[in-house]
């Protein structure tokens, strides 16, 4: 609730005050047990920072984090360490996140010894079981990360994350470094594991295509804020925020004639150290008016379970729905 994280940026000169980077600003949401919750936005929107805040891999500037009915914002390090058995992260680059000098068996077994869950023969048996769960072979345990493809490495990372029996998995762009052809396999694996182990999954992604068929609810982030939050079916059939519509227009479609009628907005992400006044999206928004330059729109309920941070969301959606064709 109200999660905020500011970073001090590099000082431009010795005498200047270091500018503050608003990486995540007053973000609130609740993830339901057993769902796949997606956080989507361009790189630099704060989604990776947000996912690290949730696990307290970095500390929030303000706000609170609750996990399984417990406020964990100020939990002491030792208790937090124990709690991390239940909340695990899968990283974007499986190669960088796996120690190259450790065998696959050691990598997957390490959390088991660290948390005192299993050792010796029992650990070896658990590792073999975990390898099978992610679609790898028992004798892969004796090999090293460099001997595997990107997709296989991500499977190793997933097995390692699963080792302690977590209830929450956070994937920070777990497939964006992989070939397009194997992304679906890894996403499907996560979905299978979610069903088998009753996991809750938070999936961070920079495009909507990746999460389209897997997420239950989606939060769209822009410059450190959530600008739209809805269940996936609603978001994809009736996107309300102009930024969400822009992301949708960027989803590749097989038939170019079926392309969205929404104009693709030009422009880059403004600097998070110097955010524009009013609506943060107004410099790029094709619908921006005077009010947008003055007044910051807060996230408000538009329909039940559908929240949006745009002054004119309904009006824009009503005016354009006729011309909006989404890919199947
Ligand atoms: Fe665009 Fe204005 Fe809505 Fe912001 S508030 S998204 S500038 S229409
Ligand atoms: Mg990132």
UniProtKB/TrEMBL annotation:
GO terms for molecular function: ATP binding. InterPro entries: AAA+_ATPase (IPR003593), ABC_transp_ATP-bind (IPR050319), ABC_transporter-like_ATP-bd (IPR003439), ABC_transporter-like_CS (IPR017871), Oligopep_ABC_C (IPR013563), P-loop_NTPase (IPR027417). NCBIfam families: oligo_HPY. Pfam families: ABC_tran, oligo_HPY. Belongs to the ABC transporter superfamily. The lineage of its organism: Bacteria, Pseudomonadati, Pseudomonadota, Alphaproteobacteria, Hyphomicrobiales. It is a peripheral membrane protein. Its main location: membrane. It is found in: Cell inner membrane. Coiled coil: none annotated. This is ATP-binding cassette domain-containing protein.
């Amino acid at each position: 609730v109200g999660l905020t994280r500011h970073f001090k940026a590099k000082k431009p000169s010795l005498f200047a005050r270091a500018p503050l980077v608003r990486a995540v600003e007053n973000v609130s949401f609740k993830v339901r047990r057993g769902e796949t919750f997606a956080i989507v936005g361009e790189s630099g929107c704060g989604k990776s920072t947000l996912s690290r805040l949730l696990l307290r891999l970095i500390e929030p500037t303000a706000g609170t984090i609750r996990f399984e009915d417990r406020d964990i914002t100020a939990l002491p390090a030792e208790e937090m360490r124990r709690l991390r058995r239940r909340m695990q992260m899968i990283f974007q680059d499986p190669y960088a996140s796996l120690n190259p000098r450790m065998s696959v068996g050691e990598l997957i077994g390490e959390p088991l010894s660290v948390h005192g869950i299993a050792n010796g023969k029992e650990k070896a048996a658990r590792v073999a079981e975990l390898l099978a769960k992610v679609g790898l072979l028992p004798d892969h345990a004796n090999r090293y990360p460099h001997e595997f493809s990107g997709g296989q490495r991500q499977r190793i990372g997933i097995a390692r994350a699963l080792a302690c029996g977590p209830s929450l998995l956070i994937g920070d762009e777990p497939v964006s470094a992989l070939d397009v052809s194997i992304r679906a396999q890894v996403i499907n694996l996560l979905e299978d594991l979610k069903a088998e182990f009753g996991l809750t999954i938070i999936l961070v992604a920079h495009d909507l295509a990746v999460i389209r068929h897997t997420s239950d609810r989606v939060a769209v982030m822009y410059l450190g804020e959530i600008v739209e939050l809805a269940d996936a079916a609603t978001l994809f059939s009736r996107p309300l925020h102009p930024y969400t519509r822009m992301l949708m227009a960027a989803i590749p479609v097989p038939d170019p004639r079926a392309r969205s009628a929404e104009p693709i907005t030009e422009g880059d992400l403004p600097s998070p150290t110097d955010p524009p006044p009013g609506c943060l999206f107004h410099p790029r928004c094709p619908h921006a008016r005077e009010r947008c330059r003055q007044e910051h729109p807060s996230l408000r309920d538009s329909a039940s379970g559908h929240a949006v941070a745009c002054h004119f969301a309904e009006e824009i959606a009503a005016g354009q729905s006729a011309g909006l064709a989404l890919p199947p």
